């Protein structure tokens, strides 16, 4: 958290007693009667959340006082707004709005565009209602062209740096897709160039791992603290576990030096149930969950962020864990989100109200394997900057 963010939250906290004085508080919005979960504060209990001037001012049981609007969240989960660090939402002019309705109050486009069209992606992100930033793909054509960096001329460091310079407020990292059908035998050099492009502004690099030509340890050696490995549950070749289900020592060493590991659900070759079973059983948990959202993914496999979170409930993880992996953990990866991911008084009032339903729900991995789970999260309401922006009947 930088000094400006600290001062803003501290000032908001000072105002809280004034707003609550004599029981005459006037709030803009109260979210009442829900189960509030804030992993940052280790909070999980029945609480009301009061909001004024775009900030959370109180999280307490039975908050009194007038409010311009009330959301009855009885029977629902009230959590910090979801932060999705791996989407391709700039591929649709409505992508950010669709994600917002699903509870996503902050998102990253993970390399949809390279230097050739990065300005187009930035324009879409700037028009979004919620904080939205982009990673520039080291491949000039972005994700649309398969095999882009099999020609190393397409991994142009100078053009990538220029794209970052033109959009310094919006480009927050570099993406390197390293799979065999994109980079081929060039994967190591492509990653080296991505790091070179990122170095001028000390930006993180996100790598798309799985099915690479180079062994994963060779690629991990190029990663620094703050870099992100996405598609961490991808099956061989070159997954994060060996043939005996043990996490590779180089993977453990990477995490120890500050490299983060992300789900990146997606629809193709990224998530297989048996791999998830083995990796979770080995005790190597994700730092973050993300969807790899695309317009096409809304109708199959991904559906929405709460559905992706639900897959890990089915895999045996707790509600508190999946909330942490979707809120406070991703908030720490990019400066734009540093004061978010929490219900702490003084924080921006970005909130997802989720409906945790019991029943029998089908979940599908990227290989067509189906599993049933007894719980599923559904988006129910979204609050952004203290205002209700979506409600699902």
Tell me what the structure shows:
With 393 residues, this protein is of the alpha/beta class. It has helices spanning 3-20, 95-101, 118-126, 157-166, 187-199, 216-220, 249-256, 273-281, 305-314, 319-326, 328-331; strands spanning 26-38, 43-52, 55-60, 66-72, 77-80, 82-87, 104-114, 132-137, 171-177, 205-208, 228-230, 260-261, 351-364, 370-384, 387-391. The protein folds into two domains: 3-79 and 345-356 and 376-391, Urease, subunit C, domain 1 (Roll), CATH 2.30.40; 80-337, Metal-dependent hydrolases (TIM Barrel), CATH 3.20.20. Strands 1, 2, 3, 4, 5, 13, 14 and 15 form an eight-stranded mixed sheet that branches. A seven-stranded parallel sheet has the order 6-7-8-9-10-11-12. It is globular and about 65 Å long. The two termini are 37 Å apart.
The major beta sheet can be summarized as:
8 strands, mixed
* Number of contiguous helices: 11
- Low-pLDDT parts are 1-22
N- to C-terminal distance? 37 Å
Shape: globular
- Mind telling me the C-alpha Rg? 21 Å
Task: Kindly estimate the percentage of residues that lie in beta strands according to DSSP.
Answer: 25-35%
In quaternary terms, these chains amount to single chain
CATH topology annotation of the largest domain: TIM Barrel
User: What pattern of helices and strands is seen along the backbone?
Assistant: HEEEEEEHEHEHEHEHEHEHHHHEEE
Write the CATH architecture name of the largest domain. Alpha-Beta Barrel
The CATH class of the largest domain is identified as Alpha Beta
Structural class comes to alpha/beta
Full CATH superfamily name of the largest domain: Metal-dependent hydrolases
Helix content: 25-40%
Summed up, the domain count is 2
Q: What is the number of strand segments?
A: 15
Mean pLDDT: 94
């Amino acid at each position: 958290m930088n000094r400006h963010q600290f001062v803003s939250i501290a000032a908001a906290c000072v105002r809280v007693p004034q707003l609550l004085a004599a029981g005459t508080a006037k709030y803009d919005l109260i979210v009442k009667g829900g189960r509030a979960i804030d992993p940052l504060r280790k909070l999980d209990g029945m609480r009301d959340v009061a909001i004024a001037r775009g900030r959370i001012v109180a999280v307490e049981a039975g908050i009194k006082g007038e409010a311009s609007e009330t959301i009855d969240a009885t029977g629902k989960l009230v959590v910090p707004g979801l932060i999705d660090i791996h989407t391709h939402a700039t591929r649709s002019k409505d992508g950010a709005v669709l994600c917002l309705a699903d509870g996503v109050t902050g998102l990253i486009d993970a390399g949809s565009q390279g230097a050739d069209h990065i300005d187009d992606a930035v324009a879409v992100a700037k028009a979004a209602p919620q904080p939205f930033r982009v990673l520039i793909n080291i491949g000039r054509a972005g994700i649309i062209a398969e095999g882009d960096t099999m020609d190393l001329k397409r991994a142009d460091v100078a053009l990538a740096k220029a794209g970052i310079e033109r959009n310094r407020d919006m480009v927050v990292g570099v993406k390197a897709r390293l799979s065999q059908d994109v980079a081929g035998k060039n994967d190591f050099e492509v990653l080296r160039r991505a790091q070179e492009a990122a170095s001028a502004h000390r930006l993180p690099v996100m790598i798309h791992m799985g099915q690479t030509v180079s062994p994963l340890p060779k690629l991990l050696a190029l990663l620094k603290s703050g870099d992100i490995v996405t598609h961490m549950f991808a099956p061989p070749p070159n997954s994060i576990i060996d043939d005996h289900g043990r996490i590779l020592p180089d993977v453990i060493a990477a995490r120890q030096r500050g490299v983060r590991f992300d789900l990146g659900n997606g629809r193709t070759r990224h998530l297989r149930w048996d791999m998830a079973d083995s990796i979770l059983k080995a005790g190597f948990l994700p730092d973050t969950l993300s969807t790899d959202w695309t317009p096409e993914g809304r109708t199959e496999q991904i559906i929405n962020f709460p559905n992706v979170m639900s897959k890990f409930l089915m895999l045996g993880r707790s509600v508190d864990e999946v909330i942490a992996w979707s809120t406070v953990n991703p908030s720490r990866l990019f400066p734009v989100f540093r004061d978010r991911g929490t219900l702490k008084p003084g924080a921006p009032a970005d909130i997802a109200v989720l409906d945790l339903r019991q029943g029998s729900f089908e979940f599908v991995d990227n290989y067509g394997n189906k599993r049933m789970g007894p719980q599923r999260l559904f988006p129910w309401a979204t609050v952004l900057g203290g205002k209700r922006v979506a409600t699902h009947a």
